[in-house]
Write a structure and sequence with these properties.
Layout lengths: L8 H14 L3 H15 L22 H9 L5
Helix pairs in contact: 1-2
């Protein structure tokens, strides 16, 4: 696929440096750098919340209700 792009100076320098080091063409250098960037951004595992039993005897999912049980109706 042929396309025209504008490269930032630091990216152009990285491509130029890679071409000199490996003796490769522009397209190969650009493709190699893009592939390296894609590999570096491997997806993270899904976040999983760890839970532990606190041995509580009251339901603390509703904070207002829990405070009322612990502190009385004046806590509201």
């Amino acid at each position: 696929m042929r396309t025209t792009i504008t490269l930032d100076r630091d990216v152009a320098q990285a491509i130029h440096r890679l071409r000199r080091q490996r003796g490769i063409g522009l397209s190969e250098a650009v493709n190699d750098l893009i592939r390296a960037g894609l590999r570096a951004r491997a997806p993270r595992p899904a976040f999983r919340q760890r839970v532990h039993s606190l041995g509580l005897k009251i339901d603390v999912r509703n904070v207002a209700d829990a405070l009322e049980i612990l502190d009385g109706p004046a806590s509201r």
